[in-house]
């Protein structure tokens, strides 16, 4: 691919105290790609995503979002975060706000949009995830799958350059997993760039443009889903995948 990457990690190292969790990550995500990250618990997947919007600091390496180097100490991190959506395992919705209130919060508080304009954009985002009819519901009145779709609407309403998903379906009842994965596939079809940590191997295999296998703070292997799932090159990848089949 010749286009400039939307997100580029170069030699990323991160430690918590003396515990090294990322040991030289090089990763590029190109416009319109959906890259799925798989790997065992504790391999550093969440830490990597959290570094990308500076929810975590890191010791060395570089993270570029488009042509902006977000590793620089003088970077305006709030501006950067508006370009990088994040969808969490635990949704992280505000319980006292409606679905629409959650989706429009950053538009109003960070971008200073009027309530009318924020509501218009928020409703459009809720429509894209199939929840326009739940705009006035509070999170407690929604299923896990619906809450996560609100989480996705909250990310897309800011028109980010990329959305990072950290195990978006891991906290869901099995019967609501499919509706969230379906919304993610629709985003992908509409050209959204996405970096998705997931344990849904069927989804990664069917929907990803590229799959990354992480273990022990490094990228062990990457390739097309057919490469990684169909013909894994490394023993560690094979051992990991064997647990899911
Ligand atoms: P994954 O998402 O692949 O399960 P994480 O990035 O969450 O991996 O964790 C990588 C390693 O870092 C694990 O050993 C985990 O216990 C450790 N870790 C994660 N967050 C913290 C933290 N805030 N403080 C100390 N250690 C952490
Ligand atoms: Mg994690």
Automatic annotation (TrEMBL):
InterPro entries: AAA+_ATPase, ABC_ATPase_HisP-typ, ABC_transporter-like_ATP-bd, ABC_transporter-like_CS, MetN_ABC_transporter-like, P-loop_NTPase
Transport found in the keyword field: yes
Annotated GO CC locations: plasma membrane
Chief location of this protein within or outside the cell: membrane
One Pfam short name: ABC_tran
Boundaries of every ABC transporter domain copy: 7-241
Membrane topology: Peripheral membrane protein
Subcellular localization, as worded in the UniProt entry: Cell membrane
Key words of the record: Amino-acid transport, ATP-binding, Cell membrane, Membrane, Nucleotide-binding, Transport
MF terms in GO: ABC-type amino acid transporter activity; ATP binding; ATP hydrolysis activity
Family: Belongs to the ABC transporter superfamily.
Protein name stated in the entry: Amino acid ABC transporter ATP-binding protein
Organism the protein comes from: Ferrovibrio terrae
């Amino acid at each position: 691919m010749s286009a400039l990457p939307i997100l580029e990690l170069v030699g990323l190292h991160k430690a918590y105290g003396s515990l090294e969790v990322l040991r030289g990550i090089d990763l590029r995500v190109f416009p319109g790609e959906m890259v799925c990250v798989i790997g065992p618990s504790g391999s550093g997947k969440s830490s990597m995503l959290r570094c990308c919007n500076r929810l975590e600091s890191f010791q060395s390496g570089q993270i570029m979002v488009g042509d902006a180097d977000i590793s620089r100490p003088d970077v305006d991190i709030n501006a950067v975060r508006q370009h990088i959506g994040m969808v969490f395992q635990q949704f992280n919705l505000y319980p006292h706000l409606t679905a629409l209130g959650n989706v429009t919060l950053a538009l109003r508080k960070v971008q200073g949009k009027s309530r009318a304009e924020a509501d218009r954009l928020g409703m459009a985002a809720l429509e894209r995830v199939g929840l326009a009819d739940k705009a006035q519901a509070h999170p407690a009145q929604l299923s896990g799958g619906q809450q996560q779709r609100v989480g996705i609407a909250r990310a897309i309403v800011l028109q980010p350059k990329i959305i990072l998903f950290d195990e978006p379906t891991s906290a869901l009842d099995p019967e609501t997993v499919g509706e969230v994965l379906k919304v993610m596939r629709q985003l992908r079809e509409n050209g959204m760039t996405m970096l998705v940590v997931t344990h849904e191997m069927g989804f990664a295999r069917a929907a990803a443009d590229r799959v990354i296998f992480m273990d022990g703070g490094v990228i062990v292997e990457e390739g097309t889903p057919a490469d990684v799932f169909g013909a894994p090159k490394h023993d560690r990848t094979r051992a990991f995948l064997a647990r899911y089949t």
